[in-house]
Design brief:
Blueprint: H1 3-8, E1 12-16, E2 21-30, E3 33-42, E4 49-51, E5 55-58, E6 64-67
Antiparallel strand pairs: 1-2, 1-6, 2-3, 3-4, 3-5
């Protein structure tokens, strides 16, 4: 397991995919899945959109993840 993933749990992150990104709290990691809560969908040229419930992302689809500074972004 990578250390950054342990330290990023329960922190606000931006999970970047090839065509969009999600900003939210990395709530859990379950095998190949990341579970995000309090999520906004970020797409180029559009306003951020709130997402109800949890978002589950396959880690294999993640281009990179940004761990935001405490009190930053969202």
């Amino acid at each position: 397991m990578f250390a950054w993933r342990r330290t990023a749990v329960r922190r606000r992150v931006v999970v970047n995919l090839a065509d969009k990104a999600f900003s939210g709290v990395l709530w859990a990691q379950r095998g190949p899945l990341l579970v995000l809560r309090d999520v906004e969908l970020l797409e180029a040229g559009r306003e951020p959109q709130r997402v109800d419930g949890e978002v589950v992302v396959e880690r294999s689809r993640v281009e990179f993840t940004q761990v935001l500074a405490p009190g930053g972004g969202g």
